[in-house]
Amino acid sequence: MANSENSRPIYPKVPEFSLSTFSSKDFIVKDFIEGLTESSVPVNRRSGTGNSNAFDPKPYIRTFEAALGRLKDLDETLSTRESELKEGVRRAEIDHTRTLDRLGLKFNTTLSEFQRLDTSISDGGGMAVRIGGQLEQLDKQRQRAEDAKFLIQCYTEFSRGDMGRLESLRRTGRIEDSIRCAVVSRQLSLVVKRSEGHKASKRTKELIEAFSETLEQDLLKQFDDAYRKFNVNAMKGCAKVLHDFNGGNSVISNFLNQMDFFIATSKINAGEVMIDADIEEKLSDPDENPPGLEPSLMALVNEIRDVMKAESQTIKEVFPFPEQVLGTFLQRVFQQSLQQRLEMVLEKTSTLSHLAFLRTLQTSRACIIALADDLKSHGLTEHPGTLSSTTTVLIDQNVEELFVPYLQDRGYMEKEKEGLDQLYTGLLLKFNMFHEQRKREQNLGVLDRLKKSRERAIEKVLDSDLGRSQSDTLSRSIELGRTRSGKGSHLSDAILTDFDGQLNVEFAKRMLKWLAEGVGRSLELSTPADTPKDVSALLNILIDHMRITYLDTALDAAQETAEQQAKGEPDLTYFLEIKPATTIMHLMFSFINTALIPLSQTSLTTRREIGKLTNTTLMNLEQKINNVIQRTVDVVLAYLAVLLAKQKKQDFRPKDDDVSLTTLQTPACLSVCAFLQKVAEISNESLDGTNLESFLNEIGSGFRGLLLDHLKKYQVNQAGGIMLSKDIAKYQDVVSKWGVVTISESFELLVEIGNLFVVGPAAVKERMRDGVLSRVRPHLLKPYLVRRDDFTAAGIDKMLASE
């Protein structure tokens, strides 16, 4: 037993493995190598005996050699099996190729057979088509022969006076028979026409015409009955027959004549146009917004819109030629119903006033254009598609023809100009009357002719066709009554106030608003090519009234008033016209530059003329305003000189040295200051900004010069010097409140000169060398110092001589 244990090999056998070991899904190379390595470790080492530090490679070599040998055997086995499989695949591919060749040959044979069969079938179909075509041709020939036979039979019967064959066909009531009857009747008419000259043809022609007329009336009656029952199919059949028979004109007329729309509108148009009093007043009142389209005309436009859309669908379903019927329908609607009502409404509003007519014309055209656009967008017979170009052109043409009588030859613009002229004249009526009365009072003889011409213009306004409501309003505004005979009282009966002769900014705003309405109206009613001409014409009216009649008159009156001031205190209320005048100018030129000039850009000539007229107007008005301002400066300074001249010689040489006198200003000073305060108040109401500052600066500078001359004229004692300084301080206080820095600084010199009369003789020299006076040469101050009572006694003259 011991021997058997000793005979055991030191290294165990290599583990057995086969191809299945490597084909397993769980095969891992690392585990396989570790298994070989584990089996190579000697038993004694695995048990922990022996020298564990010495490495013996032999077991591993033996194990791996055995494993490599086994792997080599397996590789040879795999190679053999692979060769066998490749051989099997090669033989299978050869068999597959042979099978494909055999099947391909069979497929080609089958395809050839199919092509031969298809060719045979095609040849048979072509033959059938040829036979069918020949049969169809033969059928047509047969039908033509039958139609010719029937036509000959009918003609023969008509020649004998017999209409039985066609009459029986007509009375069947079927659409197909009616169509055939109509065709035969038309052919018979052609036959008779060609055979004119024969004796029997006249009688035959009369019979055929009588039958054709009877047939047409019968078809129209059928169409009428179908229309009342709204039998679309029957209407469609009759329409087609009549279209083939005589072009369809009779059925179109019958269709349109039966419409309730035309029956109703003919009754409405037979009556008069009645406009509510409220609408009449708004139409003629330029300050009111336009009330819109006259109600009856607006209702007609809305009804046309609904009827056209509804009847277009019927026309599309019934008539084989819908576009022709639609064109006739449109022309009748626009040229008959709409035009008649439009003329009645415009004629009625023209009796009210030019403005009422123009507003109605504008709203009517805008409303009818909107109607046309709505119809074109709807499509009518092409709905929901787009309307044909022919019908679109027809609609536009009918719309334009409605307004040609009112817009051609610029007749509209003449009414616009005349209307604005009347409105402006009426608005400025009392203003003109006031200034005429003012001039008449000044120089009655010179202005008699002007008065009469102005009265004629005013009477023209009162008796014009402004309309009863507007004329009454105008009469009330100038407080003129009208007699029962319709004649107004004389213009001299009008009650005028100072307010009537003053500029009113609200009047200017109203005038510009009226003009803006006219400009907007011209853009809608006139062609783009006429826009520059229209703008120029309207601008001339604005310039004539707002500048010449309004601003020029007011500024000329202010200038005349300034020049006619008496020696007493001037009345400067005329100067208050400057503020509204400048405001109106700003409004007018802003409107011209913003609204009118841009509209004239398309015509260089007109644009140049408008620019020249605008610049000339602006320069003239600015010159007039400058003249008024300058004349006012002269008037104010002249009256200040008058007030200063009232200074008493003893005002600055009081005999009584009472101290209370030194706390008062002289009467002349008080009157001057009171007047300056009035001037400042009026200036602040009339001017603003740099204009106000420049005006007050002119007054202040002139007043300062007057005071400098004034101080040279009066002797001053010690108590009078105090009063003089009080006067100057008062003057300075008044002008300082104006808020003009240059004036306040310039009056510092006056204060210092006044102080020269207050200080003692010893301090005069020092005073002259201090402050503002240090910049003034002594010889210029001598005229003031001479007026001191102690000038010689105190040695001031010697002091000046030494300077």
TrEMBL record:
<comment type="similarity">
    <text>Belongs to the SEC10 family.</text>
</comment>
<dbReference type="GO" id="GO:0006893">
    <property type="term" value="P:Golgi to plasma membrane transport"/>
</dbReference>
<dbReference type="InterPro" id="IPR048627">
    <property type="entry name" value="Sec10_HB"/>
</dbReference>
<feature type="domain" description="Exocyst complex component Sec10-like alpha-helical bundle">
    <location>
        <begin position="180"/>
        <end position="800"/>
    </location>
</feature>
<dbReference type="GO" id="GO:0006887">
    <property type="term" value="P:exocytosis"/>
</dbReference>
<keyword id="KW-0813">Transport</keyword>
<dbReference type="Pfam" id="PF07393">
    <property type="entry name" value="Sec10_HB"/>
</dbReference>
<protein>
    <submittedName>
        <fullName>Exocyst complex component Sec10-like protein</fullName>
    </submittedName>
</protein>
<dbReference type="InterPro" id="IPR009976">
    <property type="entry name" value="Sec10-like"/>
</dbReference>
<dbReference type="InterPro" id="IPR048625">
    <property type="entry name" value="Sec10_N"/>
</dbReference>
<dbReference type="GO" id="GO:0000145">
    <property type="term" value="C:exocyst"/>
</dbReference>
<feature type="domain" description="Exocyst complex component Sec10 N-terminal">
    <location>
        <begin position="57"/>
        <end position="170"/>
    </location>
</feature>
<keyword id="KW-0268">Exocytosis</keyword>
<keyword id="KW-0175">Coiled coil</keyword>
<dbReference type="Pfam" id="PF20667">
    <property type="entry name" value="Sec10_N"/>
</dbReference>
